[in-house]
Design brief:
The protein is of the alpha/beta class. 33% of the residues lie in helices and 15% in strands. The chain contains eleven helices and eight strands. Strands 1-6-7-8 form a four-stranded mixed β-sheet, with helices on both faces. Strands 4-3-2-5 form a four-stranded mixed β-sheet. The radius of gyration is 25 Å and the shape is elongated.
Length: 451
């Protein structure tokens, strides 16, 4: 987790002089399993907070500061990896145009001039997410493919289907390789007696690794079948397979994929490639209660040549909502000096009564997701890109839109300039960050946890 956090601490920005250190500490609280993003969002939100702070100190639009500092094609990130196929500049320009960002910024300012207790904010946030395990030996995958004499195919691979659509993509890859319909491809549940020593289904890399392993097995079988295709022009796949079977051809193959080029954490190439995206979110905040509503979010993601656009869009929508929860709702409260009524080291927010996650009511009133066109990825199967974890950080666009609204509220009370706002931006923190006669605790005041 710490490795991925420091490798993503630059987000999409070029710092000519950058050094990132991560320190792991033992504490008196229980350890936590990593979640979607695996440290990446935590590293990136620090960088976006820098951009926000710099813009306020220089009295510039934060979007102008962000764009001016974006990487360009061929730049090198702090670990030394060269960026090829860098799509953020294109994504930024296309999304800014499609969302009519400048006009909407003006509309937000006009609304805020007319309303004292309800303020709107808008934010534009980019992201890049590295695809590969930082632990080098995890970057491998296996698959087992059987062809039956009726022309159906059974595929087993090392990835776990947990609702993310992995099996569907694998079936499509096999179907395309054999030039048959996807309904004729069956996926066996993951089992170590079929594909042993599988890496975790994580790091957003499962479609890449197991898709490539399946394709390897399919290519082996296609080589064995080519002779019979040539003998039987116009024959169905089932007829070709039956002919090969009668000629005693092995119709089963094991496929394997070893991710090339990557060297793991500490190398100049920790990732095979990056998945890029950006989001624009507009919110409205009630400064008297801290409640907020998301009016609109637009997302543009680079997924290469998508294997299944419906699945990818679903992953983007779900990842965004989970990021929204991370950045604005889900707050863990532990017993410490700020919470003396909670036993030290004890988690107060340990159930649905105190720990809240996003619901249907938290979805933006208008949520638009688009996929970047004509951006094939030469590093992965079918020129596609991984999409599981990359969209999560885009939920921070809501966090920074909320902060933009708070800035406007504070400016109206004579408290302009930078102020710290810690994630998650809960209603309590929003309310306490808006300055009035009840909440003005001085310029150095920081809203802490909400409980």
């Amino acid at each position: 987790v710490m490795q991925r956090a420091v490798l993503h601490a630059d987000n999409c920005y070029n710092y000519p002089n950058a050094r990132f250190h991560g320190r792991i500490c033992k504490t008196n609280i229980s350890s936590n399993t990593a979640f979607r993003g695996f440290g990446g969002p935590q590293g990136m939100i620090v960088t976006e907070a820098w951009m926000d702070h710099v813009a306020k100190e220089l009295k510039m639009d934060v979007e102008q500061v962000r764009f001016a500092n974006l990487y360009r094609e061929g730049d090198r990130i702090p670990c030394g990896m060269k960026l090829d196929g860098f799509q953020i500049t294109r994504i930024w320009e296309e999304l800014r145009e499609s969302t009519k960002f400048d006009a909407r910024r003006q509309q937000v300012e006009e609304f805020n001039k007319k309303n004292k207790y309800r303020k709107r904010g808008i934010a534009f946030i980019p992201t890049k997410f590295g695809i590969a395990f930082t632990l080098l030996y995890f970057n491998q995958g296996g698959a087992l493919v059987h062809i039956y004499t009726d022309g159906t195919v059974l595929v087993t691979h090392g990835g776990v289907e947990m609702g993310q659509g992995l099996h569907t993509k694998i079936a499509q890859i096999a179907a395309q390789a054999f030039k048959i319909q996807a309904k004729d491809v069956f996926i066996s549940e993951t089992s170590t007696d079929k594909v042993p020593n599988a890496s975790p289904t994580a790091a957003s890399a499962s479609s890449d690794m197991y898709g490539a392993a399946v394709l390897d097995a399919c290519n082996q079988l296609n080589e064995r079948l080519q002779k019979y295709r040539d003998m039987l022009p116009g024959a169905t796949f089932g007829e070709v397979v039956m002919t090969a079977h009668k000629d005693r051809v092995d119709l089963s193959a094991h496929g394997f994929y070893k991710m090339p080029e990557v060297g793991g954490f500490g190398s100049e190439r920790p990732f095979l490639y990056y998945t890029y995206g950006a989001a624009c979110s507009e919110v409205e905040v009630d400064v008297l209660t801290g409640d907020f509503q998301i009016h609109k979010t637009d997302i543009l993601m680079d997924v290469g040549n998508s294997i299944n656009p419906a699945i990818d869009i679903g992953q983007i929508e779900g990842g965004f909502m989970q990021g929204l929860g991370l950045m604005t709702i889900e707050e863990a409260v532990w017993g410490d000096k700020d919470h003396p009524w909670v036993r030290p080291g004890y988690l107060q927010t340990r159930g649905p009564g105190t720990y809240k996650i996003p619901t249907a009511n938290d979805i933006p009133i208008e949520l638009n997701v688009s996929l970047l066109q004509n951006a094939p990825n030469p590093h992965a199967v079918a020129s596609s890109k991984a999409i599981g974890e990359p969209p999560l950080f885009l939920g921070s666009s809501v966090f920074f839109a909320i902060k933009d609204a708070i800035y406007n509220s504070r400016a109206g009370e004579g408290a302009g300039g930078f102020f710290p706002l810690h994630s998650p931006a809960t209603p309590e923190k929003i309310r306490m960050s808006c300055v009035d006669k009840f909440t003005d605790h001085g310029k150095d005041y920081q809203a802490k946890t909400s409980v």
